[in-house]
Amino acid sequence: MRRSAGQQSPNAAERNLNQITITGTLTAKEEVRYTPAGLIVFEGTFHHRAELVEAGRPRTLEYDFPTVSFGPVAEMLHKVPLGTHLTLKGFLAPRSQRSQRLIVHITEYI
């Protein structure tokens, strides 16, 4: 994104911003597992569908995206039935240190 003349540079907090809020329907989830430190892990797939306007034109988006969560949120997500539509909040991160594929880390949901 380009800034117009006279616009200030973002501060450090804005430069490091990584937040996502997205809706989706739970379509798949892995079996319960735990980290070596004993934290419960949720891994699942959500389906997102939205109609929006981009550059003045309508656009329909429809795709699946991978998610992961840890601790109490993961424990609650394991109890959510497939087909449930949720609003997810969290951040994006690579799947692993050796991967460039992004995954949504869920920190809360509604």
TrEMBL record:
GO cellular component: primosome complex
One Pfam family, short name: SSB_1
PROSITE patterns listed in its UniProt record: SSB (PS50935)
UniProt keywords, alphabetically: DNA replication, DNA-binding, Primosome
UniProt KW Zinc keyword: no
Keyword DNA-binding: yes
GO annotation (BP), single: DNA replication, synthesis of primer
Domain of life of the organism encoding this protein: Bacteria
Recorded coiled-coil stretches: none
GO MF annotation list: single-stranded DNA binding
Protein name: Putative primosomal replication protein
Species for this entry: Sutterella parvirubra YIT 11816
